[in-house]
Amino acid sequence: MNTLRHLRLIATTCAFVCMLGACQKNAENHTEVTPTQTSTAPQKVDYQVVLDVRTDQEFNSGHLDDALHIPVQVLETRLSELPEDKNTTIMVYCRSGSRSAAAKQILEKAGYTAVTNGGGYSALKDTYKSK
Q1: Which of 2, 17, 42, 71 has its CA 20 to 30 A from that of 57?
Q2: Which CATH number fits the domain that encloses residue 44?
Q3: Quick one: pLDDT at residue 66?
Q4: Dihedral sign, Cα of residue 75, residue 78, residue 82, residue 87
Q5: Does the residue 87 lie in any domain?
């Protein structure tokens, strides 16, 4: 019995050491990601349409240059204001990224194929020119 216990102990110890080694190997290849790096804000890209889906008041308090303003609440009824070409590159933004996510879904449902959720205005205004 003691021999069997010793073999189990040795096997368990070996398995544990192997797992630690694997964890250490993965830790060496691990890169720390900061909250800033996980932002949905895209790199500076020249989109054909930059769409601000915030309220009139938010838009009037500041917006990206050349942004088309259509509040998300009325986007479905104002799709005719967007280019007919469904492959037009469009970046949608709002205050935090929630309304732009909803707008992205509306646009994709309407057939647009190149829509990016730019996230929130405050993160974008440093990358893109704003008014």
Answers
A1: 42
A2: 3.40.250.10
A3: 92
A4: positive
A5: yes
Per-residue pLDDT of the chain (131 residues), as tens digits, is 566 565 565 656 555 455 545 444 444 433 333 334 344 544 667 899 999 999 999 999 999 999 999 999 999 999 999 999 999 999 999 999 999 999 999 999 999 999 999 999 999 988 887 66
Active-site annotation holder among 14, 18, 23, 94 = 94
Q: What stretches of the chain adopt beta strand conformation (E)?
A: 49-52, 68-69, 89-94, 114-120
Q: Is 94 labeled as catalytic in the residue annotation?
A: yes
Q: In what order do the strands lie in the sheet with 49-52?
A: 68-69, 49-52, 89-94, 114-120
Residue among 53, 49, 62 nearest 114 (CA): 49
55 lies in the same domain as 25: no
Closest residue by Cα to residue 104 from 46, 61, 42: 42
Domain range enclosing 107: 40-124
Whole-number Cα distances in Å, 128 to 100, 115, 121, 125: 17, 17, 10, 5
